[in-house]
Amino acid sequence: MSRDVYVFAEQRDGELQKVGIELVGKARELADDLGQQVAAVLLGSGVKDKAQELIACGADKVVVVDDVMLEEYVTEPYTKALTAVINAKDPEIVLYGASSIGRDLAPRVSARIHTGLTADCTALEIDEETKLLMMTRPAFGGNIMATIVCEDFRPQMATVRPGVMKALESDASRSGEVEEFKVEFSDADMNVKVRETVKTAHKSVDITEAKILVSGGRGIGSAEKFKMLEELAGVMEGEVSSSRACVDSGWISADRQVGQTGKTVRPELYLACGISGAIQHAAGMENSDFIVAINRDEDAPIFDIADLGIVGDLNAIVPKLTEAVKAV
Ligand code: FAD
């Protein structure tokens, strides 16, 4: 029995996804509390060379299932491969990103191995006394934070929101073990055929992956005014995000919402324009590296968490900022 802490290290087109790296960082902390090791599971085709990146980010070992059947994410072969690894290794904990792939894969694996799954967690810690994993997630529309434990089944499994956990600094000198794990696939495992992958023409990235976010709140005033933010985000090579007020008003799509019932982000720069800084919004962005707030109300709570505050009308400030960045 290994009793280690495992992370499903998601990759897309051969690129490791940020959430997996973040989870390796968190797993390091949990494993240290348990006196165990961190293992990452890497599934794909031609992905073995990515194992060292995971070791550099904190994994002690990487279990790689490299097979043409895993070239594209398809539920059944991925479920089969991960289930086989878990059954063979008997981990104490398995973590997945709450991405579209993680949300599809984790429940199926949990059903196959007859264990529980806590979805969409925002905090994880080991209880000092019981050594159980305390899995915390928003519940009842974000009105309460529920902490869930899985007492009787193993592994304890959770999906975790992207952006919530902090990745460790990559250290190329770290060493670890890479194990190639073989899974016997048959044609019957590929019950879905991917005929074509069409990439969206829209070049925007998920807000949890963006390094710079230009975020709009109710103070923006209308859907049209978001163009002003898009222009600023464009010259800064960032993305546009928003508060829930704008999503509720239909000014922007829900995948751009930051906060307790939206996404948790941790960009290098978060520029909050016309956002008051309600706790439900702050919960999703307060761990950004550098926060700049533009608000005409000098008492707005956003200034309590901002590194730099600009008191004034965003309609005057944002275009000037765009021109200034263009001029650099
Ligand atoms: P407001 O609070 O209305 O603030 C607008 C700000 O714009 C004000 O500070 C004003 O001074 C400023 N302003 C106005 N005009 C200008 C101008 N011309 N120039 C400069 N500044 C200007 N909210 C989220 O964002 N994300 C969530 O995930 C989320 N989840 C929630 C979950 C629950 C259970 C509940 C109850 C609420 C949740 N909310 C969430 C809503 C949250 O409580 C706030 O209502 C919301 O964040 C407010 O959005 P806002 O800051 O854009 O708007």
How does the major sheet shape up? 7 strands, parallel
The class by helix and strand makeup works out as: alpha/beta
Helix content percent band: 25-40%
Distinct ligands: flavin-adenine dinucleotide
Uncertain runs = none
Number of strands: 17
**What is the global morphology?**
globular
Cofactor: FAD
Binding site for FAD: 218, 243-244, 257-261, 274-281, 295
Family: Belongs to the ETF alpha-subunit/FixB family.
Organism: Anaerostipes caccae (strain DSM 14662 / CCUG 47493 / JCM 13470 / NCIMB 13811 / L1-92)
Describe the structure.
GO terms for molecular function: electron transfer activity; flavin adenine dinucleotide binding. This is Electron transfer flavoprotein FAD-binding domain protein. It is a single chain. By secondary structure, this protein is an alpha/beta fold. The protein has helices spanning 18-34, 51-56, 75-89, 100-113, 226-235, 244-248, 279-285, 302-305, 314-327; strands at 5-8, 11-12, 15-16, 38-44, 61-66, 93-97, 118-121, 123-126, 133-139, 144-148, 156-160, 177-180, 212-216, 239-242, 269-273, 290-295, 308-311. The chain has a seven-stranded parallel beta sheet, sandwiched between helices. A five-stranded parallel beta sheet has the order 14-13-15-16-17. Strand 15, helix 7 (279-285) and strand 16 form a beta-alpha-beta unit. Helix 3 (75-89) packs across helix 4 (100-113) and helix 5 (226-235) packs parallel to helix 9. It binds flavin-adenine dinucleotide. Flavin-adenine dinucleotide (FAD) is lined by residues 141-143, 217-219, 243-245, 257-262, 274-276, 278, 280-281, 284, 294-297, 300, 313-315. Flavin-adenine dinucleotide binds next to helix 6, helix 7, strand 16 and helix 9.
